[in-house]
What does this fold into?
Amino acid sequence: MELSKSKAALKMARAGFRDLELNLTACVSPASGSSSVSGSQYKVLEALKQFEKLYLQLRREENQGLKGRAYATARNCIKAAMILRREGKWINTDQHIGNVSGIEIGAKFQFRAELAVVGLHHQLFRGISYARFGSKTYAISIVDSGRYENVTKSSDVFIYTGEGGNPNVTNKKPRDQKMVMGNLALKNNMVDNFPVRVIHCRKTLKAFDTLGINNGKGLAYVYDGLYTVVGCWEVRDQLGKLAFKFEMKRLVE
It folds into this structure.
């Protein structure tokens, strides 16, 4: 009975990835509505297919109990991404400010690890991905994961909470955030008026539930385009700790 359930789950997983591929293809297709896929879009789809194949292999080994109990509790999506990285199969690995070739606004991803595989957000765990350009660091992309006290003001404006000090993320005691690393980089974007890629973690269609992503909560990571940082200030959060708030406004091209 348990074996049949495992097989059924894997069948559903494959179906879910097919839905994901069709959805992503629609998102990366030209705005004209053409079904053609460019070279850069094809690379994105191929990278996701490789991730899919490896993820399903790890799931299969987990269900067969080949690696033991400890392996069964591992995050196979992260394992799959790290294996692909070691094999040099991540794409769009250059650190640059702006959109990523082959990924249109509205593209959806089931796993956060996929964002790193395709080069949309280079950090597997941290919410702010940044790099040094000249004498300063600048934020390249941010993920609004829902684990911080972020506030949506309108369809084009939201308040993003800086990184660090959140016990919901680190499982440690709450502490003050510091104006270093990603927080400093994001502030530099505001000072020098550089845009940043924004990815939101959102509730999505039933098709994304088939893989049990995010413990079956039906979430997806959605690329929302480029935003500018138009404000930065300090507050005391619900735990009384210092936190940085950044006002993000959609960049109208």
Summary: The CA atoms of residues 208 and 235 lie 36 Å apart. Helices lie at 2-28, 39-64, 68-72, 76-86, 112-117, 167-170, 181-192, 213-216.
